[in-house]
Amino acid sequence: MSIPTHMTGTVAPVETLPAPAPSPVANTLAAAAAGSLPDSYLSLRAGTQARGLHGQLVQQLGRMIVAGELGADRPLVPEEIGRRFEVSRTVVRESLRVLEAKGMVTARPNVGTRIRPVPEWNLLDPDVIEWRAAGVAGLDQCRELAELRCAFEPLAAQLAAGRLGEAAGARLAELAAALKQAAANGDQAGYAKADGEFHALLVAECPNRMVEHLARVVSGAAESAGMRRRSCGPMTDAAAAGHQRLADEVVAGDGQAAAGVMRAMLAAQLEEQATAYGLPGQRGQ
Hints:
Blueprint: H1 30-33, H2 39-44, H3 46-49, H4 52-66, H5 78-85, H6 89-101, E1 105-108, E2 112-115, H7 126-133, H8 138-160, H9 166-185, H10 188-205, H11 209-224, H12 237-252, H13 255-277
Antiparallel strand pairs: 1-2
Helix pairs in contact: 4-6, 4-7, 5-6, 8-10, 8-11, 8-13, 9-10, 9-12, 12-13
């Protein structure tokens, strides 16, 4: 397969290339182009998106590696990649360096550039998350993202408990009330908006910046993978009441109780997603 363009100084846009079969839960890079991903997530992905020619090649090679279409049985040969995609050796070298930084390939003297095993990849890299979500392992990626939330959001609630300022505590109570009202009115859009802000506020008030960073990556990746970040299960009066209990425990400073409420809510969401997306699936790439 070669890019259907000649040496004009640009590579044909990635979206014009043959793409892997779409995952039932995945969107493509069109989501980013349309501006539908959170700014915080897009800023993490700016590296390969903003570097033109070699950024496009990184995207294409990354997708092909995830799909098992490239380098599965022998080393990657830069000269062959250059001819295949009609780009210079410099562009190929830069692209392979980016993939090496993501843990996906390794270059050794007398051995060449080889693809590394999946567990050695930087699986929290936003590009790697998106490539996996858009490929044959899309269901596994979505399951892993949902399970990861179950691990860190209860911690965020526990650490935020008793540490909210007056304004943040008042806003959390307002959002809990908004969720209750939206559930009563059957207002799905209003519920989703209040719900997203509720969870984002808790994470932002957590005194652990690594948790906050992880939450931005996971929530943005879930959006990209087609899993709308609707936080904790279906829109019901019971779910809204759960948010109210969570807000009360956080404001009261009971971290253990807050973590327990959050854990139960996320378990309900994971169960819902298991039904909707067929999760958990068999482990793939």
